[in-house]
Amino acid sequence: MKKSLLVSFLVIVMSGCAYLGAAHYDEIFGQEQIQPRIVAHNTGSGAEFLQHVKPLLDTRCVVCHGCYDAPCQLKLSSPEGIDRGLSKDLVYDGTRLLALNPSRLLFDATDTQQWREKNFTPVLNERAQTEQANLAGSVLYNSLLLKMSSPLPKEGVLGKEFDFSLDRKQSCTTMGEFDRFAKAQPHAGMPYGLPGITQTEFKHLEKWLKEGGKVAHIPAPDKVALAQVLRWEQFLNQDSLKYQLTARYIFEHWYLANIYFSKDDNKSFFKLVRSSTPPGEDIKLISTRRPYDDPKVDRVYYRLMHERSTILAKTHLPLALDDAKLARLYTQFIEPDYTVTAMPSYKPEIASNPFKVFALMPVKSKYQFMLDEAELIIMGFIKGPVCRGQIALNVINDHFWVAFADPDKVATPEVGHMLLQHEDALALPAAEESNALPISSWVKYANRQSTYLEAKVKLANKMFKNGEHLTTDLLWRGENTNNNAALTIFRHFDSATVVKGLIGQEPKTMWVLDYALFERIHYLLVAGFDVYGNVGHQLLTRLYMDFLRLEGEQNFLALLPKQQRQELKANWYRKSPTSLTNFFKSGDEFSQPTGITYNTNDQQHELYKLIKSTLKPILSPRFDYTQVPEPLQQLNAMPAKAINLLPQVSYVLVKETDGEHQAYTLIHHNAHFNISSLLNEDGQRAFAEDTITIVPGFIGDYPEAIWYLNNQDQVTEFAQLLPMMQVEADYRSLKSRFGIRRTNPEFWLYSDILHKVAKQYRGIEYGLFDYNRLENR
């Protein structure tokens, strides 16, 4: 610890003001009272915050405190989040019997006083605004001091007193509780489980806190961006009911996106929101649990709100809007010949079912709209509120490819008629809202899914009679320009990633999505999912996703010979629960042969080659694993025993002779006998079948291990030793030589390098990584 920091700490402690009970704080500094903190960006304190404080909070604090799953709901990524403070309520809680009241910044409270009424407590001083009180009464400041009084060891693995599990018990201490907290957990200073900040960094934060912790928003967008905002708001808010229905559909699919108008401007992002005020007036947000819930206003206006929070990789869904996109939307939704005479109801049983609400719109228009930004739509359940933990993720395999049925072939009038006839069977669990009874509801929705599949298979048997059109010509080719036509999804146990392209080795399974399936996935896991819902809602969501995964797999299997379909499904669902066996047979009634002529006994391999060939013009080369140079390339063939020791996502930085860096991602794919067991995932693990892929660049947003290789000799040694690992001790030995552990004294230096390199690789897709899953090994 630097001498000056020690002196600062001792002065505060000896003054008797560092850790005091709540009554003493009241006696010395007065009662807590909301303080005005937000100032203009062009004031002295506003400029100080944006230039010196915000970059520190972003790179040292927001990497753990930035999202729904931030510890104690402390979001330091925006002025409103800093001022709101922390809460003892858990957002991600798979055991609650009743839904929790939402606590979304900007939406569920309009000012700090309302957050206090919702039991959020401050991390900045809210008593007398003196320099002494501002330091002594700040949870943030005292948390930094606590780290300095009990720093991390400078190497090795941290002890058992550190709990990094996602479901760990949270203290969420108030200033009045801090004394007891510090004595019980002296190791729990901030940044938690990471080295303390530097003296210079500390001084910047100390000065800011002394002066009252003033915060400021980033500057407003430039005139060019604002002109685009006005243009788009005019399009989305015309009086015609046809336009209103179109805007409603667009909003319910794009509301999570970070919209931008120029790749050169990586600071001006916008959120599409519902407002009770028209364009030209200040936005007044309509706050509902779901994007389709009753707005309780006569007229909804769709507005573009400047996104002023720090951009985080794990929630960043960039969407480019331009003249071509505007023209495309007009062609898809306004030009077609249909008439809207009344707006659909917002009743839950109606609004949760897109096949009812948007029945008037041509199926092909809706499907093409989703296909145009397929990666973004799927990214909604990867990076949206459902993203964390096992709610939706243990229902998908660790590595699989996704393609789409061609709208010209499957979005026909016959398909549209079938969907209209069975719109009730297509109802989704979100109709039960946020408090659901899982078992009885599951039976109901399972029966409805069976009814729909029966109708779908009956129509498919007619459309593909004798294998006609049942070839790779069935697949959407992105109109030869759109690389959304081929996607890869990676599951990283309790997080996931979607990228463009058919990435990595040939996967165990593949999905082929049609319109109805694609739409239901979105309304199940994105629009209809409530992260604050009860255990029944979350369980029902997970169980229903089983149906949708099976349907996507069944569409893929239809391209294979009948015998191969059965063999593959049997392999994918080894040791499946008996209770689900009958449902897994859904789709077996599809009796048409494939239209593809196969020449080998490995038809799945042949089909993958055919699909790659068919989609070759639009396949993104960005993460082509074959382009990783030797000797790192050989890691793709590591033995399972060594792979088992690796975390799900590891970043490898290689320093070049010119000082620049090359980046690679090691992705560990967990193999399973089946993924239909909700409560016993470990029991379904096929450890001997685990695989790994190393790709150029960054995949994933939650690094679990960071490897730094200084030169080519280290690259060679690393590539030789990693496959030779047998036991945990081997892994720890390698980590000591090449890894950047939590205890590395220069951790933050390497973190800054990591983010700098990521910014170069990701461009407009760049956001801060999240360190909540960083391993301690």
From TrEMBL:
Superkingdom to which the source organism belongs: Bacteria
Keywords from the named record: Isomerase, Signal
Record's keyword annotation contains Signal: yes
Signal sequence residues: 1-20
GO-annotated molecular function: isomerase activity
PROSITE patterns to which the protein is assigned, alphabetical: PROKAR_LIPOPROTEIN
Protein name: 9-hexadecenoic acid cis-trans isomerase
Organism for this UniProt entry: Pseudoalteromonas porphyrae
